[in-house]
Amino acid sequence: MKRERSKKYFWLQRLRILVQVSFFLLFFILFLQTHYPGEDYLKVTVERFFHFDPLLFLAASIASRTIFAALLLSLLTVAATLVFGRFFCGWICPLGTVHQFFSFIFKKTRLLRPPKDDRASLSSKYLVLFLVLAASLLTVNLVGYLDPFSFLYRSFAVFISPLLNLGLVQSGNLAYLLGLKSLGQTISQAAGNLALNSTFQNALVIGGLFLLAVLLNARKERFWCRYLCPAGALLGLFSRFNLFKLKIDPDKCINCHLCSTHCQTNARPYPAGEWRSSECIYCETCAAICPTAAISFPLSWQRERMQGVDLNRRRVLLTSLTGLVLAPIFRISPLRRRSNPALIRPPGALAEPEFLSRCVKCGECMKVCPTNALHPALAEAGPEGVWTPVLVPRIGYCEYYCSLCTQVCPTGAIRELSVEEKVTVKIGTAWVDKTRCLPYALGKSCIVCEEHCPVSPKAIQLIKVDTLTPGGVVATNLAPFVNVDACIGCGICENKCVVMDLPAIRVSSIGEHRSSHNRLVLPVVEEQGQ
Predict the structure, then answer these.
(1) Other C-beta atoms within 10 Å of 23: how many?
(2) Chain centroid offset of residue 407 CA
(3) What is the SS3 assignment for 304-369?
(4) Is 530 among the domain residues?
(5) Which among 70, 325, 449, 529 is placed 20 to 30 Å from 411, CA to CA?
(6) Confidence of residue 3 (pLDDT cuts 50, 70, 90)
């Protein structure tokens, strides 16, 4: 029999690669555009990719009991999946493109050798999906940990971005050392234009998880897409009803197994009758490499059974119950009684319970912050709030005339504010530590915090204090005093404090506008004093 590959699917495969690269570049360009543009407001909706993610829409809506209008765009993804199958994972998803690229590299270097007949179960990602949705029923939003957009953007913002910044800075320094002044200036200007933040807490953990996800492709091609991705599982459930079904012409098939061996997601095109429609991402690889053009995707109105996915009622019920049991465990935290002083949320953040039910830990607000002030939380917000954004004044501060973080939240966890609204929002309160403040403790003059306070009239005022020095001399200096009613908790005073290790003035979350109980004096004490 004459062997002749299908030119149609060969070019479709090339088109798919071009589309993949284009969408990844679009994602990366929007990522780079998520920074201070020199104006008060962003002109581009940089978070638009997230709005087409049906998993974010479903989980965030269930957990928060509200629907964020922009996420309704994800219904277009669902509608397209019902027609064309799970093409979103194979043609559009930027994380899928990253995994496919590294799978290709690992195959070329022979670190990955696909088995000829892989019968491994693909149920795990569906169980992850049911666990996440079950937890959402109890208003615990776990979707941000494994959602592909959140995972990729968070990894890029917290891990890749500082690496790019470090690379540019070191390249510029090297160019100057080599006497290439013009090249050094060009690199320095590029680094300045990109405005990449250089430091993030928890970057090692988040970066390590990203590298682990990439390296797993050396074990199985597109390991994440096969076994972990809950968004792919959700689209797989809809994909069973699509209109284009794989068909193998028995007269042309030579039983070479090439299609199944090189299938990116183990959808098993061969043998006929074992094709897993819910796993097929329509990459067209099987049809393109078939030596006899035996594979095609004609129109078919028949619904496919879920092959290779063991979703019996017992497993689904057990997984859902696990999610329901885990949800309260995430809520076990002393923060339920008293707020953590370090839990300073971005301006515009909703009240903590509603904020946690909506936040998907994507890192958009962290990436856009021009002063590198927002960082992924670890213990500050309890188990439920890991990797949600918190303000860390020792690294950065909340710029007074900036509301960029409120403009990029994809789920409305941070309410959009105008600059005029933002400057009135109180996110915390500053406190002077008199045991470390130079005028109070050492009798030395220092008014740095007062000079930097942006509030008008200033929240940090100066008063005269007398300090007895070790030499027996009384030193009189101006010392800072915080007007707690005027302070908005921006953190610039703590950031600029000249006491290097533990600043002499520090910001606490107390007094934040979004909370009715995180106040200076407990309500019980106030009632007793009346």
Answers:
(1) 18
(2) 15
(3) CCCCCCCCCHHHHHHHHHHHHHHHHHHCCCHHHCCCCCCCCCCCCECCHHHHHHHCCCCCHHHHHC
(4) no
(5) 325
(6) low
Q: Where are the alpha helices (DSSP H) in 386-471?
A: 404-408, 419-422, 438-441, 448-452
Q: What is the mean pLDDT of residues 114-132?
A: 85
The verdict on residue 516 lying in a domain is no
d(CA 402, CA 303): 52
Last residue of a domain, one of 379, 404, 424: 424
d(CA 132, CA 229): 11
Q: How many domains does the chain have?
A: 3
Verify that 480 and 343 share a domain, yes or no.
no
Quick one: which of 287, 296, 247 has its CA closest to 5?
A: 287
Q: Locate 260 and state its tokens.
A: 């199944």
Which is it for strands 295-296 and 247-248: parallel, antiparallel or unpaired?
antiparallel
Alpha carbon distances (Å) from 420 to 10, 370, 410, 526: 56, 18, 22, 32
Model confidence at 136: pLDDT above 90: yes
- Residue 515: both structure tokens together: 């909370």
Q: How many helices (H) does the chain have, and how many strands (E)?
A: 23, 8
Domain span including residue 370: 335-424
- Relative to beta strand 429-432, strand 505-508 is antiparallel
* Least confident segment among 84-93, 215-224, 255-264, 358-367: 255-264
Query: Cα separation of 506 and 148, whole Å?
Result: 37
153-188, pLDDT tens digit by residue? 999 999 999 999 999 999 999 999 999 999 999 999
Cα gap 436→110, rounded to integer Å: 60
Q: Is the pTM for the entire model greater than 0.70?
A: yes
Candidates 73, 117, 111, 409; CA nearest to 258 is: 117
Digit-coded pLDDT (tens) for 316-335: 888 889 888 888 888 887 77
SS3 2: coil
In terms of Cα–Cα distance, which of 76, 283, 46 is closest to 149?
46
**Which is it for the CA torsion 395, 398, 402, 405, positive or negative?**
positive
Beta bridge partners of 244: 299
Residue 381 belongs to domain with CATH number:
3.30.70
